[in-house]
Amino acid sequence: MNDLILTNLETVPGRRIVEHHGLVSGNTVRAKNVGRDIAASLKNLVGGELKGYTELLSQSRDEAVERMKAQATAMGANAIVNVRFSTSSVAQGAAELYAYGTAVRVE
Amino acid sequence: MNPDYGQSDSVPTALIILFYAAPFIALVVFGFIGMFAERSHYKSIRQREQNGHRIPITPTRTLEPDRSVAESRLVAASVVVSLDYFKRFLANLRNLIGGRVRSYESLMDRARREAVLRMQDECPDADMILNFRMETSSIANTRGKRGAGGVEVLAYGTMVRYAAPETTPPKLS
Q1: Any alpha helices (H) in A2-85, and if so which ranges?
Q2: Which CATH number characterizes residue A59's domain?
């Protein structure tokens, strides 16, 4: 699964696309836990980076990407082009991270 | 007639004053801590931007066509930053009269530059980052109110590493 190539271009540079498999996507909805929340609200007083949230969001994004990759692998693709990310808050304290792209086979 | 009356009253008065002054003391204390934190953050951003090899970034989608590519993959990095108590208070005041909200301007600037630096650190061997994109979203605070909890900036693009340095001189037109 690690040999999947991800790019946000229309093509994979240096390779030729031989087959299109269509859209693949992966999502995850995450809520922050209470401990992180308390730590972040204390950090909020002095400002600066909220490391807990940075970590949480990048983990969630990786999770969404992993799901997208799994879908692409199941289709028999070996690359995903035109990858996009989108974030939306669905409920109080929860966010959805969504990754989508086009699964292709390159030579 | 209590001879201790005046003395015993002085302690509660001090406590009452402290009670009402606490938010303002907090404002000043957290404001100073936040100011120093921001300064040191800017210092480290400037330092990292200057030293070391920085990979060129472009929002365009095309690359030099006559060079062969050894590696290309998606690189992404994100950062969440928030304002300190004092600056948030200032921003709220600014909301009443309108105009430039400087405290948020510097916050966004810090977040964007930090995200770009982290993205570049993800691929130290790259020659170029193509199709560079940035996304910003506000993170809700603990009580679910939007906008006060901080902002997240995500920077992403496609890193490209060329196969070998060009041996032939470029064609003259």
Answers
A1: 34-46, 51-75
A2: 3.30.110.70
